[in-house]
Design brief:
alpha+beta; 7-stranded mixed β-sheet; 21% helix; 29% strand; Metallo-beta-lactamase, Chain A; 279 residues; globular; binds zinc ion
Length: 279
């Protein structure tokens, strides 16, 4: 299967920054009884939850946009010392950090903000993508940079907060334009200000959906929520709305936590459920 596809004149490339070790399924979907997975073993890896920390590169004739920035350079001690591969993958896709016009952060969890800024020990952080605006939803910014939350969340104070002082921050709301033909939409639930990037080009449409879901079983089991979803009822509502729209409008969809090679595709409506058809 493919790691790249087109929405009109926009090329979408899936990149993996880090592949963590597989998790026990009960640690990720603790509300779902183990036996309910029997019918979805094909969505697991030897009964465990395998994911990757994905990033999407969007290249149009006029602009280069990066959606999310992975877990960062590392080495990641909590994942066996692996190092993030975003930079080499970006270059392999024909892009450079300097050539990125906008970085859209779907939300501010650590596995999405890792490469946003270079954290320099003893000195101020500097931007990894020096010519980019960084688009973060107002709601998300307010939540994570709130005094108490920032103090207890690793990564935000050094990895995100300096963006404001550096003058690189673009705070967004529902429907804020990023570049020509691309705008962010509020898709809350996974986090308070989670946003997705809607792309329209040459009569085609797509949604770089972020963390609207975490596993292919959720196309059929739309009410299942990963424990990472901060507001599960809201995440169900958002997921339902966008899977329905993806199927009816034939949107090209991407999900950063599905496995590379099968994280770009279409949502097919089958009876009262959905199915994933990777490109
Ligand atoms: Zn995530």
């Amino acid at each position: 299967m493919a790691t790249t596809a087109k929405i009109g004149d926009v090329r979408v490339t899936a990149i993996v920054d880090v592949t963590p070790p597989a998790f026990p399924i009960a640690n990720v979907f603790s509300d779902v009884p183990a036996s309910d997975w029997d019918a979805h073993q094909d969505a697991l890896s030897d009964g465990r939850f395998q994911t990757n920390f994905g990033v999407f590169l969007l290249q149009s004739p006029n602009s280069t946009v990066l959606v999310d920035t992975g877990a960062g350079p590392g080495p990641h001690d909590d994942m066996g010392g692996v190092e993030g591969k975003l930079m080499e993958q970006l270059r392999a896709a024909g892009a450079t950090p300097e050539g990125v016009d906008a970085v859209v952060l779907t939300h501010l969890h650590a596995d999405h903000i890792g490469w946003a800024l270079k954290q320099n020990p003893g000195a101020e952080s500097t931007p990894t993508f020096p010519n980019a605006r960084y688009a973060i939803s107002n709601t998300e910014w307010d939540y994570w940079t709130g005094h108490e939350v920032m103090a207890e969340t690793p990564g935000v104070e050094e990895g995100i907060y300096p963006l404001e002082k550096l003058g690189l921050l673009q705070l967004t709301d529902d429907e804020t334009a990023i570049v020509d033909g691309m705008r962010v939409l509020a898709t809350p639930g996974h986090t308070p200000g989670h946003q997705s990037l809607f792309v329209e080009s040459a009569g085609e449409k797509g949604l770089i959906a972020g963390d609207l879901l975490h596993n292919t079983a959720q196309f059929e089991e739309i009410d299942w929520c990963a424990d990472f979803d901060m507001d599960k009822p809201a995440s169900r509502t958002t997921r339902k709305k966008w899977l329905e729209k993806a199927a009816s409008d034939r949107l090209l969809m991407t999900f950063g936590h599905l496995i590379i090679d099968s994280n770009i595709g279409h949502v097919i409506s089958v009876g009262d459920r959905y199915r994933w058809q990777a490109v």
